Amino acid sequence: AITREVVKNMTTALFPLDVQWNDLDYMDAKRDFTFNKDGFRDMPDMVNDFHHDGRRYVMIVDPGISSASPPGSYRPYDEGLKRGVFILNATGQPLIGRVWPGPTAFPDFTNPETHLWWYDMVKDFHDKV
């Protein structure tokens, strides 16, 4: 991944580097809680290597959840629907807007269940990387 190359170059140049971050390039189709298996196929190993070297890794995560994937193929959206965590429109359906991944649903963080769902999604992704 290009991120490894950046860290290598910074280290070679003796540039102080204790944290590396990524914007949404690491994501698969710009969807939260996924990683791009082409450009970031070794992401779990990369993160472990950073930690081993005393570095931290920070990635962008925003609360816009893609609603464009086929049912059953994107757990954050499927589980969010099942648990009723999204802001609803006047017809009682998830309010859909457009953000980086395209059609997007927005979690209602005033709903206590949303906090539990968000925790579960973050934990599952953290366990993978």
Automatic annotation (TrEMBL):
Family that this chain belongs to: Belongs to the glycosyl hydrolase 31 family.
GO MF annotation list: alpha-1,4-glucosidase activity
Domain Glycoside hydrolase family 31 TIM barrel, chain residue ranges per copy: 3-126
Keywords (A to Z) from UniProt: Glycosidase, Hydrolase
GO cellular component: lysosomal membrane
GO biological process: glycogen catabolic process; lysosome organization
Domain of life: Eukaryota
InterPro entries per the UniProt record, alphabetical: GH (IPR017853), Glyco_hydro_31_TIM (IPR000322)
Pfam families, alphabetized: Glyco_hydro_31_2nd
Protein name (database record): Glycoside hydrolase family 31 TIM barrel domain-containing protein
SUPFAM superfamilies documented for this protein: (Trans)glycosidases
